[in-house]
Each structure stands twice: as C-alpha cells, then as structure tokens.
Amino acid sequence: MAGYILRRLVQSIVVMLAVGLIAFMMFRYIGDPVNQMVGVDTTPEQRAALRERLGLNDPMIVQYARYMWNAAQFKFGTSYQFKEPVAQLIASRLPATLELSIVSALFALLVGVPMGVYTGINRNSWLSKVFMTVSLVGISLPTFLIGILLIFVFSVHLHLLPSFGRGQVVDLGFWRTGLLTGSGLKALIMPAITLGLFQMTLIMRLVRSEMLEVLRTDYIKFARARGLSRRAINFSHALKNTLIPVITITGLQLGSIIAFAIITETVFQWPGMGLLFLQAVQNVDIPIMAAYLLLIAFLFVLINLVVDILYTVVDPRVRVDGGASA
Amino acid sequence: MGLLDIRNLTVDFPSRRGTFTAVRDVALDVQRGEIHGLVGESGAGKSTIGNAIMGLLEPPGRIASGEIEIEGRRIESLPPEEMRKVRGKTVSMIFQDPLSSLNPLFTVERQLVETIREHNRMSEREAKAFAVDLLDQVGIPKPAERVAQYPHQFSGGMRQRVVIALALCSNPDLVIADEPTTALDVSIQAQILNLIRSLCTERNVGVILVTHDMGVIAETTDRVAVMYRGRIVERGATRKVLGDPDHEYTKSLVAAVPRPDVRLHRFPMVSYIEGPAREFEAIDLGKHWLGQGRRDASNDRHENLIELRNLEMDFETRRSIFPSRRRHFRAVDGVSLQIREGEIFGLVGESGSGKSTVARLISGLYTPTGGEILFDGTDIARLGASAERRPFQRQMQMIFQDPYSSLNPRMRVADIVAEPIRHHNLASGGAERRAVVEDLLEHVGLGREAARKYPHEFSGGQRQRISIARALATRPRFLICDEPTSALDVSIQAQILNLLKDLQEELRLTLLFISHDLPVMRQMCHRIGVMQNGRLCEVAETEDLFERPQHPHTQELVRLMPRLDYLSRRGLDMEPAHA
C-alpha cells in the first residue's frame, strides 16, 4: 500500500520535471527575455551585464535546475505586462477559479450520479427518456451559448441573477471567497451550471452505461436470488461497482474544468485565472504562461494521485501488492 | 404432495419477430431430501425452469401458463415484493461461475451478514457468529479469519463454498443449483458435489441440479429429467433413464457421452438431431493444395516433430527495479517431452497446472525463461528475427478454446481463412486463394456459402470449424488444440472431435491436444502427459495410463472420473483395446 503510493509519487515528480522543462524552454527560448525587460535605448554593454546577472550565459542544464528550484518556491519571475511577481498575480486569481470549478464539479456529481442510477435502473420509463434527451442537449450545445442563454433568461428578462463578476467577496487573508455572502453565492450559480453541465451529462451517461453493465452480472443476479431488497442491490451492490470508471473520469474532468474554465470566465467576466491567461496570451506574457502551464500540470498530477488512492479505497483487489491472489 | 410441484409450465419470450417458447408444458416434482437432475444441451430450457421458479426470468420472458407450487403454496403469480421474500427464504440458487457470483468489492462477511439479516431476526453480532458457523458447515478451514476476506482471496472451489453458504443463509427448503461445478476442476467438482449431497441429506432440503454433464447426473442425482427443445422428453430414476432410456433423444445423448471406460473408434453422434452425416471426398495429399508444402520439408525428418528439453517459464508476480525484490511464479517447471510425427499427444491437468502455458510456449506466444523447444530438430525458442521464425510459424497452428472470442467479428469468414494464406504467400493469386478458402470451408463441413458470412451468424460448433479451417490454411504439420471443445455441447463436441480425428489421419497431422476431460482424452489421444503445478508427472500410452496409472496424481485423476458404468452401451462402435 505505502509502496503503491510511493511509486505514484515518483511518477508524479517525473511528470512535473518534464512539464517544467517545456515551461522553461518556453520561458527561455521563445523571444529573448532581456529584450522584453529593457527599453529600446539600453546599450549593448548594459544588456550584456543584465544577461550575465540573470545567469542567461550559464549552461542550459544549470539554468533549468535554477528555474525548477525557483518554481518549487513559487518564484516564477515578473509579468511583462503588469510588472508584478507572477506568483502574486496567480494567487489573487486562483481562489475565484477554484471555487467556481469545485462548485461546478460538485453540481455535476450530485446531479449526474443519481440521474445516471435512475436511468440505468428504469431504462424504459418516460423520465429516463426525458433525461437522456436533455443530456443530449447538454453535450451538443457549446458552453458559451449555454452561458449567454442563461444570462438572457435569468439576468436580462427575469432580473434574478447577476450577469457578471463574483459579487461581494470576503477576504480571509490568504483567500478571497465569494461563498460567504449572498451576492457571491448568487453570482456563482450561473457560471457553475454553465461550466458543469457538460460534465454532468457525461457523468450521467457514464453511470448509466456502467449500471446497465453491472446489473447484468452474476453477482447482481445472485443478490436478487438471495432475496435482498431492491434498494440494497441497486445502491449498495451495483452503484459501488460502477464507481471506478466514474472516479477516473471525474478526476480528469475536474482537471479540465480548472484548466479550461477560460470560456465560461470570459462569458461571465469571472475574475479567475482563465481571464488572466487569456490576457497573457494576447500580450505574449511568457512568465505567466509558463507558470500557468506548471500550475495546471501540478493540479492534474495531484488529482490523479488522489484518484489512484481512491481506487484502493473502493476496490480491494488493487490493495494487494502486485495483484496476486490466494 | 411434494416439496415442489410444477404443472404444465410454459415460458414465453415474446419479441418483435414472434414468440419464442423456451419451456413448453413441463411437469416436474421434487421431494425433500432428493437431488433431482435436469439435463439437456444448451438452449434446451433447463436454466429457464430454474429462473421461472425463482421469479427471475429475464424480461421479456414470462410464464405464459402453468402452476408452480411449493409445499402447496402457489408462487408463480405472487406480487414482486411477496416473491422477493420467497426467494432466499424458501428457494435459493447456486450459480455456475463462483468467480463472478460474488460481489468483488464487499467482504464475504458483509455479504453473508446482509443476507442473514434480510431473512432472520438477528442482531449484527448474532448474524456474524452465524456467518462463521455457516462457513464452517460448508467446509471452509479457519472460518473466523477467512470471513473478513474479500472474494478474490479465495480459490475457485472455496468461492463456490461461499456461494453455497450464502444460499443456505435462510434455511431454504429448495435449492436450485445451476451448473454448480461446470467451472471447476475434477477434484474440486467431486468435493462440491459431495457437499451438496450431504447438505441435502442432513438438512432434508430438495435440490434441483441443472447441468449438461451426464457424468455429474449419473454420480449425484436420484431422479432425472431430460430436456430437449423446451420439453421434458423423459423422466424417472437416474439409473433407469441413463441405463435403459426409452426416448430416442435420450438414447443418442447417452451414447454421445465420452466414455472413460472403453475406447471407441469414433465419437458417437447425437443422431436424433443430426440426420445422415455428410460424406466428404478424401483428400489426396499428392495432388491437393494442402499437400504441397510437404514435399520440400520431407527430406531430413526427425522421428520427434516436437521435443521439449527442460522447458521453464516464469511469470513476474511482483515487479521491482531491485532484482532481489522481484517475485516469480514458475508456471512451467522443467518439462521435457517428445511428440512423434503423426501422433495425437494429449496434455491433461487441472487449471493452473501449466498445460496451456506449454502450448503457448511451443507456438511462440511466450518466450521461455529456460530450456529448448526443438521443432524438427531446430531450437525455435532461440530464433531471433521474424524472418527466421516464419517458416516454423507456418508449420504450426493453434485452435483456441473459446469459439466466440477467437474470431474477429468484423471480418468475413472468407477473409478470416484467407488471412494466413495471404500472410505466408501460399497462393499464387486472388483466384487461387478464393478457391482454396472455399475448398477448406467445404472440407470442415461448413460449405462454400459460409465464406460470405460473418462469425456471429454461426453457432459455437460452426465457429470452431471456422477456426479449424483457418488453422489448416497455412498447410501446417503441427496443430495445437487448447481445450477445443470444452465450451461446446456433447453432440457438437462429438462432431468437432471426429472432424479433428479425420483431418489428422487424412493430412497426417501431428496434434497436441490439451484438455482437462479425461474421457475425451481416452478417445482422442495416442499418448498422454499429465501435468501438475507446472511439472510433468507422467507420460504414457493412453491405455496404459488409464489401466495402470503410475504417478499418484494420475491415479487420483483417474479415480475421480465420474463412473458411467451403468450407462446404456447400446449402439456404441467399440474398438478392440488397442488400435
């Protein structure tokens, strides 16, 4: 068990080093960092001195090591456009994105799983057919269109929810949250639904097809033959066996929700990392892009680690080292 | 009045194309303390009867008419919630595959306690104690420790014991065992059948034993009903039905059972369904396409086509970058044997004995950890480049156990059979290739029309014929058959084995025939090797092996063969003791 987690950790570190290399190459070799930092009237001597001082003449491997060492301490350099440390910029935007992503992931899970179980058990009921049809809409409509439609209905027509921004936020020192005020919560509803709708339909369809698969197995038939109640069979025996693929997909989806909240954040003018990244791309702000890349990679690695550990909680067969059985 | 009374039961499966009647007008009764057999080939409707009693018919299946009574109480028309209480409480079921009938994510204890508390008023603690007690009764050693384990920590036989314990949780009056030993080894099968027998007597419950295995029926049941296409064609005391059958179907079915005690020239067919057998034109190897590869290989022949010298195979069970922490499982341990040109060599053993691994090593699917594999004098295990291997790969082909997964469902039969010809460039062009494919299909008894179809249009036995045609398409000298008929019914098994035997004689093939079924081996093979735990215990001429087994493991296997002494021997084509 400990060995299993240790192996996953080592793999994670290798992945981080590889992504770090890409981020470093981008930082170092796409455009000349010195050119980006100095004005037009700087003399070649001053440039050479700056180059020497920044260590840009050292061997590449040394520069890479230094870059990774700094990155490990959250030092990503200074943004070209804001002239502020990148770490600070990201730290001020991170809470908004994380709150949005996690709330929409929870929405997707809490609605998607029960819907999937229901449609899996009652395959031919009219409600299942309604769910399936609606889910088709959820999958086929692009995110920005759903966002604009929601704004049109709930903000422009009904005046129920704000159309942009985070509402009032409470500063906890290290974290600025919108979850503690009424306007903050209200502002969260539409972006979260917009962002989570696709994941919800995905999870629902996944749970449904897994349920159909599991309900056909011998151990479910045997459970029925033992006279167990429908509730125990469907929600305890069957549901738990559908969880492994659901955990895998949900983990990956959470990663992409965080990384690609960009469109939703643009539609709702949500002050998160997505907007920051978009601006960085437009202004060729390499330090922000490199740091963003590293951060997203880190989140994916972290989520995958959690997913791997969850496997062992759910499935006893993974727990045995090497999978040997008696 | 019996424990179970079924009268005029008819089960329909309505579908768009019309109604399929799986069970037609069946009458059956079971008494307390007796084991009642239900035997028939797949699709005969025997499992459907079990499911109908349990109220577990797969939709759209339904009971169209008839009555099912347990101790005088009608149960076929009970509402679902009432029926659920009958299930488990009065009637229990044991399924075929112990590997898949337990929920892999819950401990045995949890599954037992849940079921016990569903049917008995018991506290959690009492239920736990009862669970341990049940495991003890079904013969699981150290039940107090093992109860906390997960299903995957039990072996197949032990798992089937757990399944039986689960079926006994509620003290049922009737137990339906649906092929309870089909997935198990012979020695485990005997233990499980003994357990069912003793539980039946001690607890005075009635048992319905559903199986296709005549041996199991003969050994275990008191009375038996023979099913054919949804009807019960014959019923009565087991001795009477199997020893002196009245109905034509029963007669031919009994005749088709491979005999452990006599050697027959050919496997008897179930003539009731068959109709007259098709006659094929004999192949003249001198002229026929299948004979062409022979001439160039015929100089410099060895007496032994295959020779294994000290063959070893390890599988890694724990990977590690440190060699000292790696763990191996030795699947094949120092096996040496010779297979002579033109003989059928049998390899027998229980699951996990390494017999299939040997087959895969010879065919090159695995690379051996140690030892030599000589094919006609060349060590093929140590050949490097694929160009060097090719001629050997062409000369040996494999036929696999599962006819459903060994054919690519997206390819037409013509392409499946033509693929090896194309791969080895054995035909001069498309026209010759097509002619060869059609000839092969004709020869394995499918007819040339089969070429245009897809595998799913064929039954299991027909698919196995396609596999054989594909294997012959490279003009092989050596054929490896890994349990080629264990997924098939008795009647189909007879056809396939006869086909293999004919082809072997006609084409002078050498066969490695792998099976766990000793009676089949006795009919098929010239010599037999017995494997246990990766080692070869004994190699002997077939008749010697059955009459005078030397190794204790062989003696045990031969002793455990179901006795079919009192089966009718009418119409058998017997062969003098030595061929």
How is this structure best described in words?
The complex is a heterodimer of chains A (326) and B (579). With 326 residues, chain A is an all-alpha fold. Chain A folds into two domains: 2-72, no CATH class; 86-323, MetI-like (MetI-like fold), CATH 1.10.3720.10. Chain A contains 14 helices and two strands. Chain A has a two-stranded antiparallel sheet. In chain A, a hairpin with a 4-residue loop joins β1 (170-171) and β2. In chain A, α7 crosses α8, α8 (182-215) packs across α10 (230-259) and α12 packs antiparallel against α13. The longest helix of chain A is centred in the N-terminal third of the chain and has 36 residues, at 86-121. Chain A is globular and about 85 Å long. In chain B, a hairpin with a 2-residue loop joins β1 (4-15) and β2 (18-30). Chain B is globular and about 75 Å long. Helix content of chain B is 36%, strand content 24%. Chain B is built from 21 helices and 20 strands. In chain B, α3 (108-119) crosses α4 and α15 packs parallel to α17 (460-472). Chain B folds into two domains: 32-46 and 79-247, Rossmann fold; 289-560, Rossmann fold. Chain B is an alpha/beta fold and 579 residues long. In chain B, strands 6-7-8-3-9-10 form a six-stranded mixed β-sheet, sandwiched between helices. Chain B has a six-stranded mixed β-sheet with strand order 16-17-18-13-19-20, with helices on both faces. Chain A binds chain B through residues 217-219, 221-229, 232, 237, 240-241, 314-317, 320-322, 324-326, and chain B through 54, 56, 84-89, 92-93, 95-97, 100-107, 114-115, 118-119, 150, 152-155, 163, 166-167, 169-170, 317-319, 327, 329.
